[in-house]
Amino acid sequence: MKAMVLHKPQPVENDPLKYEDVEMPEIGDDEVLLEIRCCGVCRTDLHIVEGELKPVKLPVIPGHQVVARVKEVGRKVDNVSIGDRVGVPWLYWACGKCKYCRRGLENLCEHALFTGYSVDGGYAEYMVAKKDFIHPLPRGIDDCHTAPLLCAGAVGYRSLRLTGLVDRGEGVLGLFGFGAAAHLMLQVAKALGLKVFVFTHSPWKIEYAYKLGTDWAGDTRAEPPEKLDAAIVFAPVSWVLIEALKKLDKGGRVVLGEIYMTPIERLDYSLLWYEREIKTTANVTRRDVREILEIAEKHGIKPNITVYPLDKANEALKDLKHGKIMGQAVLRIR
Ligand SMILES: [Zn+2]
Ligand SMILES: [Zn+2]
C-alpha cells in the first residue's frame, strides 16, 4: 500500500514525509483493518514531523483524524462489520485499568497509544485500529468534512468543556488563534448559547469569524467590548496566553488547547490574582469524540476544508505552518 512515511523529523520545508510502498498491516483478534477515505492534517502532525514532539516510533505514518471503511475484522470483533464507516481519533488505545482510566480520564492513561505517533496512522491507504476505539460516524456529513471533527473538533470540544461554560450554559468565551479547532468551536459555542469573541492577527480571519457568527472579532492585542469569563488559546505561542490572561475577568479560566507551547518567559502574578486559572487540555477521551460528533450532526456544524491528495501531505503541512489554510487541511486518499 501507499503511505506518507516519516523517517527523521526535520523542518517541513525539507519535505520530511516520503511517499512510499509499505507492507499491508495485519490485524489481531480485537482489531480491524481500515480502508482509509480521508485523513485530516492537524497541527500536532506538524509538531511530530518537525520533532517538537519527541519521536516514540520511527519510521511512523502520521495522521489521526481518519475516516475509513472497515475492510477486515479480527475474530473477537463484535461491534462493527465489514463495510461500516468509522473514524479513528488521536486516542488509539487506553488501558482501562490505571488510576486515570478508572477516573474517566483515559486521555491521561499511563499506557495510552496515540494514532500516527506511537502507532501508524492515517496518511496511508490502510491502517489497523482497535475495535473499542473506533467511532461510528454521522450519516449527514461527508467523509472529508467529518475528518476535522475527529481532532480539531474533539480536542476543541474537550477544551470548551474544560472552560466550564458548557455546563454553565452562558458566559463570554474568547477564542485565541483562529484555525481548525477555533472555527469549529465558534460554531459549537454559539449553538450552545455562549457569547464569543475571536482574537486573531489575520484581517481575513477576522472577516471569516464574523461570517461564522462571532459576536466580536479583533486583533490579538485589541481590547474586547467585555471581559472574558473564559478563553481557549489554540495558538502554540506563550505571548498569546499572556494576552488572554489580560482580558480575563475575575475567577476566569484560560484553557490551553495545544499539545505544545513556546516557553512562558514572564508571567506577572497580577494576571493570575483574583482566582484566575490556567488549565491545559491533554489528548481526548472517547466521550469527547462521541459528543462532538453528536453536536455536529444536531446543529449542522460544518468544518471548512482544503483538500490535498495523499502525496501532497508535505505541502498541506507547509500551508498549515504558514497560516494559509482557512479551517482544516484534509488528505483525500480515495
Ligand atoms: Zn490533532
Ligand atoms: Zn489507563
What's this, in brief?
The chain is α/β, with parallel strands linked by helices and 334 residues long. Helices cover 25% and strands 26% of the residues.
Estimate the helix proportion, in percent.
Answer: 25-40%
SS content category: alpha/beta
Task: Give a short account of the largest sheet.
Answer: 7 strands, mixed
Number of strands: 17
- What's the CATH first level of the largest domain? Alpha Beta
For this structure, what is the CATH homologous superfamily of the largest domain?
Answer: Medium-chain alcohol dehydrogenases, catalytic domain
What pattern of helices and strands is seen along the backbone? EEEHEEEHEEEHHHEHEHEEHEEHEHE
Number of helices: 10
- Overall shape: it is globular
Indicate the proportion of strand residues: 25-35%
In the CATH hierarchy, what is the architecture of the largest domain at level 2? Alpha-Beta Complex
Uncertain spans: none
Attached small molecules: zinc ion
Mean pLDDT: 96
Amino- and carboxy-terminal Cα gap = 13 Å
Radius of gyration: 19 Å
| Structural domain count | 2
The CATH topology assignment of the largest domain is: Quinone Oxidoreductase, Chain A, domain 1
